């Protein structure tokens, strides 16, 4: 039996955040996921964070001499974009290293968010 696809009116509306991550040490995509989830659960709590529908879609390393710099595309639910962005702004430490996460773009599709990278 074939699964039915939800019609567009019943699907969750997603937005794609392009973020710039600056950190003193090298990190991986899995560590970025941990950083994002920790920041959101500390600021918003587990109940709200579960509604965010967070997912790291793409992860890129950008060349820089002074510190490690990364760009990433993160999916979240449309109704919670402001809460996710505020949680990212409050993340400042990971494993004793300083970290800064800033949002540089917001779009409705992955393709449109790639122009910020």
User: What would the CATH topology be?
Assistant: Alpha-Beta Plaits
Count of β-strands: 5
Name given to the CATH architecture: 2-Layer Sandwich
Query: How many angstroms separate the termini?
Result: 41 Å
Low-confidence stretches: none
Tell the overall outline: globular
Mean pLDDT: 92
Number of domains: 1
Class derived from helix and strand content: alpha+beta
Query: What percent of the residues sit in helical stretches (DSSP H or I)?
Result: 25-40%
> Regarding CATH, which class?
Alpha Beta
What is the strand arrangement across the widest sheet?
2-3-1-5-4
Structure annotation, total helices? 3
Order of helices and strands: EHEEHEEH
The name of the CATH superfamily reads Ribonuclease P, Pop5 subunit
Roughly what fraction of the amino acids lie in strands? 35-45%
Give a quick account of the main beta sheet: strands, pairing sense, barrel closure. 5 strands, antiparallel
Rg from Cα: 15 Å
Set out the fold topology.
Elements: E1 14-23, H1 29-51, E2 55-62, E3 68-77, H2 81-90, E4 93-94, E5 97-107, H3 110-113
Antiparallel strand pairs: 1-3, 1-5, 2-3, 4-5
